[in-house]
Amino acid sequence: MLTGALLILAPLFLGFALALDNRHVMTVIHYGVEVLIYFILALLGLGLGQMEGLGAQLGGMAVQVLILVVVLLVANMIGLWLFHRWQPMTIERADGDVSPGYRRLFLAGLKPLLAVMAGLLAGYYLLPDMPMAEQAATWALMLLLFLIGIQLRNAGLSLRKLLMNRQGLGIAVSLTLSSLVAGVALIPWLALPWHDVLAMASGFGWYSLSGIVIGDALGPAWGGVAFLNDVLREIIALAIIPLLIATRPAMAIGYGGATAMDFTLPVIRSSGGLACVPVAIASGFLLSFLSPVLMAVFLSLG
What we know:
Layout: H1 2-16, H2 23-49, H3 54-86, H4 102-126, H5 133-153, H6 159-164, H7 166-190, H8 194-200, H9 207-218, H10 220-244, H11 249-255, H12 265-272, H13 276-300
Organism: Marinobacter vulgaris
Protein name: DUF340 domain-containing protein
GO molecular function: L-lysine efflux transmembrane transporter activity
């Protein structure tokens, strides 16, 4: 498993080492990332659909997802609140900030669920057993991480400046530590080895990564649990950001995890103003690097 973990990490850092300045190539990479994400999610659903005894396991999966979501939500909110108390951040919302359209964002948040559902139904009702699907998902994930590494390197962001953003760094560390504390508390409830539970808690909202990585290591049922936990984090973040960002910006920005630099960024921008954008990008960027590293390290201990 250690070799597999290193294979997952290598493409991310290899992509980050490449500096590209061709706008056309970067556009192709952007669309390639989108296609790969939905392809990987469909394969995740396919694995679930072809899993033996799926119907009997759905109830248990729902309970496990609920426990994960609730415990992580409580732990993350406490950790981010403590950071807010220690390093309070004040924001001024600009009058010209416009709502990004929450209905559109909510529908966009449902797309990954639809991709998984399509794969699940195809695997359960239509397609024969496809043993190569898991290997295809792993290779697709490695290509995805390589392209994401390129995107991160060429997003005009300096790693040194991101690490010097005290608020962003503090939010990322607070979310990471509180998630690991939640993972420790979840060990007796999930009936998994401690390192596997900590890997489950390290998705930070990156559902396309956690679903496949956990599924590859622990089976499609746990991959489905990891995916649903992280996609629900993203959806919940869309709801709480406008409610908390004026008074508790660290909590609002931090709970979305890795999504703060992409999917939830428009909501953070419109609700909190321009001052929140560098903080959100810094925290999301750092969590996007920490998530695969922590999952690979914890899973390699098995």
